[in-house]
Design goal:
354 residues; alpha+beta; BirA Bifunctional Protein, domain 2; 2 domains; 7-stranded mixed beta sheet; 3-stranded antiparallel beta sheet; 11 helices
Amino acid sequence: MPEAPERLEDLRREGERAIAGAGSTAELEELRVRYLGRRAELTAILRSIGELPPEQRGPVGKGANQVKAALEGLLERRNAELEASELDRRLAEDRVDVTLPGDPPSPRGHLHLISQTRREMEDIFVGLGFRVVEGPEVEYDYYNFTALNHPPDHPARMLQDTFYFSDQVVLRTHTSPMQVRAMEAQEPPIYIVIPGRVYRRDSDATHTQMFHQLEGLAVDEDITLGDLRGVLLEFARAMFGEEREVRLRSGYFPFTEPSVEVDISCFICDAKGRLHDGSRCPTCKGTGWIEILGSGMVDPNVLGFVRDNGYDPERVQGFAFGMGIDRIAMLKHGVPDLRPLFENDIRMLEQFGS
């Protein structure tokens, strides 16, 4: 193959021109196959070196490998240039405005109705000067019962004795244990609300074994039952409308004395007890009033458990209240049965998107 050296130079020049002039990576791939593929002329020259006279094998083999290396290097560099250029072109041509809605638009998620209601209630009380605190859901018997004036033989325990881990550890039955915990951590005055999950053995249309409660506590000098009524009236009007009124009825809770049940004027029938068609209002049962919570003045016995932290019952007094967040949500949004709120049926939950 006496013309091999000359032909190698021709292949090199031809390949370099072709590669330099390639306009796309696809065209460049065709050139790679043409000049370096298994059927390429350069590959044939390398395979036929053994057929050459001994004195030509070295120079032809060296020259062919040099041409191959040169073309491979040129192909690699040109490929990188073309890939970058093609990427820039695609980015310019296929630009997407990510601020545009999807097609079809993706549905927006939203907070669960209970979470929406909890946040709304927290905002109202923060606006009234209260601070939001949280406590453990697994609680000691001491904080859940004893320090709240529920001694071991107290009959009120029978309604709440529920999920125990041991004789002294229980899933809390109300958020009230944080009353004592918070007073242990802070000297008076104290104004707090405590939202969270609580656990009891109830299960019907208006009760579940796990539900949500918001507790309130205010302890200061010269706190009266009138202050309690004023706070709850402002809450009722912020939550259910400016026309609402509150009514306090005598009640009983072990950790408050005196204790009062609190009703609000019905926002469905405007406290008339009848709907526009003359039928009895199903929400207030025709009474014009809806019970929403229990409350009262903090029992001195409860303050006695934290007397050493400044809560001397002879010097300070306060009020406490507790309400079901789930019940407030049901009343405000007309939900007749509490249980579907916890069954994760999207058809139910998506009705309350904000």
